[in-house]
Amino acid sequence: MRNCSVRDLGRIGFLEADALQKSLMLQRKAGEIPDQLLFLEHDHVLTMGRNGKPGHLLASEEVLARAGVLFTNTDRGGDITYHGPGQLVAWPIFDLREWRRDVMAYVRALEQVVIDTLADFRIEAGRLEGCTGVWVGERKICAIGVHLSRWVTTHGLALNIGTDLRYFQYIVPCGLAKPVTSMAELGSTASRDQALSRLSGHFSRVFQLDAQPQRDLKQSRLEAALLTESIA
User: What's the CATH code of the domain at 201?
Assistant: First the structure.
């Protein structure tokens, strides 16, 4: 089994979290650290992937500003999606050379982690032909978008637990005119901590990881802040 450091960053702005993610990715590519798994919850943000279409953003900058929603571009694959409170985001920073050098196998494995997690809460979820992510019927409950650089992964998945689904009105989610849902909307009372625990366990099983929880949250966020300043 491979070592993997697991961090729960809690509620954190997207730009701050992304700076930390990029720092850890560079360290992982250099072989300075083992695989990393970040769990986090963003402030309200819309992120546009590399394949995003501007027409899938349905609100003006003024409307988004009044709603307290940040808009930013990102280097992950996919189109546009929403992140915010009540959503559990998982960012694996894995070197796939130590697992499988197969991008689609990696995406399918991420989907399986979520499908198995939802089954623990008696939610029957699965895949939808021709679409990425995890679905309950034709309603998306988890978005997936990844980026690879020399086989090291960034970004990952966003599972709707108690997400306020009204924020999806500002976009065509992931470029698909299909509805979204959440665990809460489906009747689950699962907490963030409960979902995180199950998700972490299935990550360890599916990817054969020896997960080591890290307690250096303050230092991690300090590193992110310093890196954000240096980029600016």
Answer: 3.30.930.10
